[in-house]
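Fig. S4 source data, part A: sequence.
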Amino acid sequence: MSVSRRQFVLAIPALGLAAAALPQKIRAAQAPVRTFNGPMLAANEVYRPVTLPSMKDAERDDLEHQIHCQCGCNLDVYTCRTTDFACSVSPAMHADVLGLVAGGHTAPEILAAFRAVYGEKVLMAPVRSGFNLVGYTMPFIVLGAGAVIVGALIKRWKPRAPVVSPVGAKQIEATAGELAELDAAVRRDA
């Protein structure tokens, strides 16, 4: 069976209409499912029915600056999703944050949910409690100890003034007139 060029060109709009109607039939048959994206798929029960979001966009962006992207980069979720367009993890984590914000959760609750899923490595800065305090205080302790050691070494290596032994006055063979002339010349110069 051969199709002429004219028949083919006239059949294109009919195929386009059929193709456009097909996804609508499929979408109508599917029930809308509200779920998390990405690695937090098991966290559906954390949604609460709240009509207003729990924070503004700027507050949400600040929250995303506190969450470490899990794609392997060293960026936070906000920076990774706005600068690395090849990353598929940060948009999923952003969608999780959006879902929790839409569910009415506060920033500490959202951080706790991410910590429960990913562990403490999801935070850009460790929590200031327990053993983590060592990480916050140790640099200052080491810096202070180093300053004390350097100060002690500088004091120890400081060149000492040579010991001057008393020199006995040498006898000058000059007459009283020569000494008087010398004394007058020194006073004129001063």
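Fig. S4 source data, part B ends here. The CA atoms of residues 166 and 172 lie 18 Å apart.
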